[in-house]
Amino acid sequence: MSQFRSGLHATLDQLVPDICVFCHCAFRHRPEIPLCPYCTSSLPENTPCCRFCALPLEDSHDTCGECLLAPPEPEHLTLAPCLYKDEGRFLVHQFKFNQGIREGRVLAHLVCELTADHYDAALPDLLIPVPTSWRRQFQRGFNPAGALAAFIGETLHIPIDHRVARKKHTRPQRQLSRSERLKLPVSTFSVQRPLTGRHVVLIDDVMTTGRTFDVLRRVCYRAGATRVDAWCAARAVI
User: Fold this and answer.
1) Looking at residue 24, what is its pLDDT?
2) Same domain membership, residue 109 and residue 32
3) Other CB atoms closer than 10 Å to residue 115's CB: what's the count?
């Protein structure tokens, strides 16, 4: 049966090629994401980067200077496969503001590829998308973090959990300065049910200052989580 399916997929790949989300050229032999090999190589990869905050590094070390001076406690991992610029920014904007499902799947696939290098044994227990306010979800029609988590969870077979809620509506992060972003209060979020003994991952589309992840980590640890990692599609540098 598996040989039949492989043959069927190969035949369909030849008959119905995919269209690249960037150059709009037809291509074959990479059915998992709608991105041709040439455009894949042009993505602004975030490597090497700090394992704690995902800031890009100039050398092969895995920790930035700030995180070396003040290591996070408890220790956690932050993954961000792309930098938020050029093609990386395009993918995020198409996904976030134009409900670009194909671009969202590309971003999710890039995150999933990165997890293989960082989780040797068991994967985390739950994926928790960064919650948005009801007002912003109504305006956009969906929560980008929730959609991204759904794509990732489908690929890695990790359940999605929505027990973290946003209690306060705040201005969009892109409209705030760095100092304003860093003032996000812990009271913005709440956990509806305990996370006792769980290794969870927070999911978002873009990480800028990291304040949202820091606040959510604190909330999740208070709810009993044993480890709280963060995965996002792109890392901004401001």
Assistant:
1) 86
2) no
3) 20
